Amino acid sequence: MEIKKSLENRFNTALANLTGSPIREFDRYASSIDGIIKLTLGEPDFDTAIEIKEAAKKALDNNRTHYSVNNGIIELRTAWSKNLKDRYNLNYSSDEVIVTIGASAAIEHTISAITNEGDTILVVTPYFSAYEGVGILNKCNIKFVDTVDNKFKLSPQVLEKHLEENKDAKAILINYPNNPSGVSYTREEVKELADVLKKYDIFVVSDEIYGDLTYNYKHTSLAEFIPEQTVHISGLSKSHAMTGWRVGFIAAPQAMIKKIGVFHLFTVSGAATFIQDAAVEALTSKEVDKYNNYMLETYRERKDYMVPRLRELGFEVPEIDGAFYIFAKIPKRYSSLGAMEFCKLLAKEAKVGVIPGTAFGKAYDNYFRISYATSIENIKESVERISQFINK
After folding, report:
1. Closest CA to 229 of 267, 197, 187, 193
2. Which of 61, 148, 193, 212 ranks highest by number of CB atoms within 10 Å?
3. Quick check: 70 and 269 in contact, CB under 8 A?
């Protein structure tokens, strides 16, 4: 069916600068190659815990299929508030929490609520592509804070430099443990960043979706040190293997929550009630906690196998602190190809699918991302295929 000709050029002009997710696009390309091992998507290969699924079934049997309170049922907001206190020493009331349709919606609601057309937002790179997309849709001026020279860590000095150069910036977006690098920050490093940020009138949008997936030290939230200017974003997709359930959270001071809640109300209204019931079980069940710890230790085993093997093959890999990604540098002999062509070559010749670094920022044309959210058998076989490819 064709659109009326006179309507073809009457869409939101911001859409002209967006085509879709570069991660999904390359995953589709990789999926077309027979026999490929895909290390592409950031999706746990585990099933959701049985206790969570049973809670959803029970909720459906109890006809929990009607409208929810817009910001989320009180039981779930209270459970998330307690989770933040117990795990990260954050003090939010249930009225300072919104339940969203995944963390992606939380990012969209937040940026939409705090920016006007033409506002400047800073994005710490490498970054999840949705940050740029949401900024473009809100017609923001996006400026990137590159971290490649500091092994993908934002230093207080670089942060202050960018804040001084962009004193009108409305918000800064940071994600840690980081997708795609797996790099995170110690408690001392988080405090140093917070000490810089608190000197400026800027919203801090802290995406901590991988906060429960850390290996070397306990996760520390920026919201512990600067709660008055931080929007804490997270969810259950990664930590609880609940990607398809779409449960995310925003926690922030009530004045922020009231404004962000307006965008939440007029875009999605509210999350499904029976899914929220299941999410309460996810946050309160000791059996689910045990399962989550099992998943974390399995990711650690995969990381501890794959990182040394890749380094033996000559790949530069940063220290992995969390999440389930490796952001490796393309070998010098292939560097002239750039990320996209190297990843296509790897997919065609080695039958291993990874994501080009340019999906996480234009500065990363010499990098590619590996997701080790797959079986150890796939990981061992993929490393062997990469080895044969590199040494041919």
Report:
1. 197
2. 193
3. yes
